[in-house]
Amino acid sequence: MAEQRPATGIDPRSGFCAATRTFHSLRPAATLPPDSLPTTAAAYAFSLLSSPLPDRPALIDAATGIAVSYPSFLAAARSLAGGLWSALSLRPGHVALVVSPSRLDVPVIDFALLSIGAAVSPANPASTAEELAHIVALAKPVVAFVVPEVAAKLPRGLRCVVIGSDEYKRLSSVGGASPPPPVAVKQSDTAAVLYSSGTTGRVKAVAVTHRNLITLICAHRGNREIAEKEAAEAGEPPYPPMVTLFPLPIFHVFGFMMLLRSVAMGETAVLMERFDFGAALQAIERYRVTLLPAAPPVLVAMIKSEEARRRDLSSLLIIGIGGAPLGREVAERFAAVFPNIELIQGYGLTESSGAAASSVGQEETKAYGSVGKLTAHMAAKIVDPATGEALGPGQRGELWIRGPLIMKGYVGDDEATAATVDSEGWLKTGDLCYFNEDGFLYIVDRLKELIKYKGYQVPPAELEHILNSHPEIMDAAVIPYPDEDVGQLPMAFIVRKPGSNITEQQVMDYVAKQVCFSFYYVLVAPYKKVRRVAFVSTIPKSPAGKILRRELVQQAVSMGASKL
């Protein structure tokens, strides 16, 4: 007998509505403030803090151990906001560039800018002068807050304030004596200009609104309530206030979103200027970190690291996975080595404010390979790229998403905005995905990154998951290698584990003999086999951990077949 569906026509198991061919979130709807209420994301986050303020640090510098209390953090953000208003004449609608590693001053600057309605625009300090010029041309900032080594790379004519300089310190002292007046900021106003990862081309500037960020905060609070309810029903103690390690940069949407979450929850953020695996393990041990946001390569490294077994990581309760798909095999191997650490997977884009789906609670984490279920208030479609037909559960297609987390648009690029978000508000993600019958979302790969071998489509991520399961492989990436006869060959770049002498043939044979998790376990189809192998010392990745395949393709072509 067919399952009884509610009057709305939405399947309570998958969230799919057959009439509209749309998947709906089955999460409890989070209570959002009226969208007509003037407020900023900073003001909303601060309004959620307890009174008196939390008695734990808001921020800790991982390298020095310097801690900033919540009273000190709020006072610093408000003083700086006053200086930005009175001394720099920043106003709602202005954009301010922030180019710095994850230092204690950066959250203060970000929240100060948000609180006066100026848009914060965080960028990578490792960017070249050309890349920064491109960013400045897109966002048109009126001022840049930078670390000293970045100042010389900025275009001439842009006002520059060096973080930590006397000029910067004067802004806070001026603001302390002259706080900014109350400002009426619409939730629909731009709160942040973030930059897409640029793995397939030049970066785009993504305008994210205060409403987007407020919805994000509410979604995280709702997920926390779900997890706490599940724990209570299971007779388990509730999670403590999280101590989150930030090995990922807060100029990237993943880090930016997690910082906003940490402050709004009254928790502690431990900041690392740059990712270093050994230093991250040391910080987890030293500061009793409970939550680690990370990309899948970090899990692979933990599985294969002797140091990870020597360190006291007993405080670590959750690793939040984002930035790239996590393979089932890696997840299962991690669970075998670290059975007390919960893996929470999530999915999002800069264009969706960093959140669109996630797993919540211990039961959902058992859906290995999935990035969880749709975030509250969000809807999705799976669209056949060839026909435009909206597909149902179990069918692969491009993921389209819609809801209050979707960006305002690309700054200065109406054409790209129109190509990405249609007239009905659907954001075309460019990701090949499917939902199963239980409403779990699975990411297969980027549509643009699928390898075309003799007309067949080969998802690089599937082969990477297999390669990373080999005990002698520390890291791996798969790219399309151009070939006149077949179109594109799957080629693997391999980082050997120290001491390993694994050969090209052994790598290819290993993939050929393995199983690959798709809808079910099947032998690797002949067209999915790795046909070329190159050994390298590192895999180039974005700050969020995404493989920069474009760079590897260029490297492979320049190496030439004879050198492989």
Automatic annotation (TrEMBL):
Domain of life where this protein originates: Eukaryota
Assigned keywords, A-Z: ATP-binding, Ligase, Magnesium, Nucleotide-binding
Domain called AMP-binding enzyme C-terminal: residue spans: 462-546
GO molecular function terms noted in the UniProt entry: 4-coumarate-CoA ligase activity; ATP binding; trans-cinnamate-CoA ligase activity
Domain AMP-dependent synthetase/ligase, chain residue ranges per copy: 54-410
Cofactor: Mg(2+)
This enzyme's EC code(s): 6.2.1.12
Single Gene Ontology BP annotation: phenylpropanoid metabolic process
NAD keyword on record: no
Membership in a protein family: Belongs to the ATP-dependent AMP-binding enzyme family.
The name this protein goes by in its record: 4-coumarate--CoA ligase
